[in-house]
Design the sequence.
């Protein structure tokens, strides 16, 4: 099942490390447990988001791909 | 009547594009460069000034001496571009009209975007590099943090080069054992490009240079001497060196021609503004997801010049930009590697060697008589 998102961060067309930086910024505004969806086209994003979630303690709860667009759903820790 | 081509900005891209246009079009066009200072700075040299390896004098030249004599130079600040009327307003002179406009205004440093940035050191301006050099001369040991306070920024390898060259500098001064050097990286590796990161990581390990991962600088507390990341981590320092945040030029923002960061939405192949076909952009000025560097501007300028020449002559433009960038990466100890890539091919850097260090040195020295004139491609 695809989770329904209230917040989406469009990082399509941005090069590494922009998607990570924008996500880190956006995450600051979320309450613990809130979800955010990030869309990106940088092929390195898959590895980077997994490592970022692991390092920061935020959860990567869903990943997907639609053509060239990669989708990541992250849940704020706490 | 000859076509009127106006180039905003006398950096690498603007100077080369103007010279190539003048050479190609001769009497078919008038080419005017508008530059706010009339002084051309060789920015890759800042790194060497900061680390006491070069004198600031070789970094600046009078822009006039770099332009073909047929190119007019106007030393003034462009304040507004009107794409409808095809005019550029200037701060001190009357408005100038164009048939084709090249926006090569580059990036602007906005230290104030980081709360507490204050007098944090950097090597992204000539003043900053000179101030850092003085600070390093006085430095007797302690914790040095080097980080990035905003993305995108010019010359992505510069922070890596800086920490490795700083390591060498401190060893020569005999204070390396009293100092720690740590790079605060936005990612989980030393450098955005994975292949280059794999190459420099063993050098970090060997030289004892620290790496703090996923540390995106958010605020600085100069009193407490701490820096805090977006990820919520705080680190203490004795000397902090940050790459300051960058934005597009004020004239781009004032004219409503840029995106949220002030970068011009640019077609990745034709280098035209996505909404205004008579406006071209190159170098740092664009929103393209490639390196902001002199090298990028250098490879884009011939494409811009050739496409404008085709428009002037009413022929079909042939040249397109394929994302080509080439840069050197100093790895310390008199060694360097190189990164060559384009939209379709990621770089495969060679093993660091003295050869690439000398190639970079020769390029730095030969810059003034080769690049602006279009003698190397």
Sequence:
């Amino acid at each position: 099942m695809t989770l329904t998102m209230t917040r989406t961060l469009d990082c399509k067309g941005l090069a590494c490390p922009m998607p990570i930086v924008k996500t880190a910024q956006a995450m600051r505004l979320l309450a613990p447990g809130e979800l955010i969806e990030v869309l990106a086209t940088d092929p390195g994003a898959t590895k980077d988001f997994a490592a970022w979630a692991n390092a920061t303690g935020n959860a990567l709860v869903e990943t997907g791909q639609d053509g060239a667009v990669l989708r990541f759903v992250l849940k704020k820790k706490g | 009547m000859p076509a009127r081509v106006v180039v905003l900005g006398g950096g690498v891209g603007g100077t080369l594009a103007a010279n190539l246009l003048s050479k190609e079009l001769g009497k078919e066009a008038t080419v005017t460069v508008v530059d706010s200072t009339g002084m051309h700075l060789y920015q890759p040299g800042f790194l060497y000034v900061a680390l006491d390896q070069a004198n600031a004098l070789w970094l600046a030249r009078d822009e006039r001496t770099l332009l073909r004599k047929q190119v007019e130079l106007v030393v003034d600040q462009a304040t507004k571009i009107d794409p409808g009327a095809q005019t550029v307003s200037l701060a001190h002179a009357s408005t100038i009209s164009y048939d084709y406009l090249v926006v090569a205004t580059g990036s602007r440093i906005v230290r104030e975007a980081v709360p507490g940035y204050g007098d944090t050191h950097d090597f992204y301006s000539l003043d900053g590099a000179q101030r850092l050099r003085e600070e390093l001369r006085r430095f007797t040991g302690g914790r040095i943090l080097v980080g990035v306070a905003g993305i995108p920024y010019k010359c992505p390898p510069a922070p890596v080069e800086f920490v490795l060259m700083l390591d060498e500098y401190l060893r020569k001064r005999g204070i390396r054992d009293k100092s720690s050097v740590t790079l605060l990286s936005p990612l989980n590796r030393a450098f955005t490009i994975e292949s280059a990161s794999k190459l420099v990581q063993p050098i970090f390990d060997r030289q004892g240079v620290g790496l703090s991962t996923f540390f995106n600088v958010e605020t600085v507390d100069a009193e407490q001497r701490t820096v805090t990341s977006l990820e919520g981590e705080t680190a203490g320092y004795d000397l902090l060196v940050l790459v300051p945040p960058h934005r597009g030029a004020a004239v781009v923002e004032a004219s409503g021609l840029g995106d949220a960061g002030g970068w011009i939405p640019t077609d990745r192949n034709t280098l035209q503004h996505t909404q205004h076909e008579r406006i071209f952009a190159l170098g740092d000025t664009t929103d393209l997801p490639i390196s902001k560097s002199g090298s990028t501007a250098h490879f884009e300028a011939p494409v811009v010049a050739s496409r404008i020449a085709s428009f002037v002559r009413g022929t079909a433009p042939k040249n397109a930009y394929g994302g080509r960038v080439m840069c050197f990466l100093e790895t310390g100890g008199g060694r360097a590697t190189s990164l060559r890539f384009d939209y379709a091919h990621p770089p495969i850097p060679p093993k660091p060697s003295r050869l690439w260090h000398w190639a970079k040195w020769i390029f730095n020295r030969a810059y003034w008589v080769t690049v602006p004139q279009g003698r190397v491609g």
Q: What stands out?
A: The CA atoms of residues 324 and 342 of chain B lie 4 Å apart.
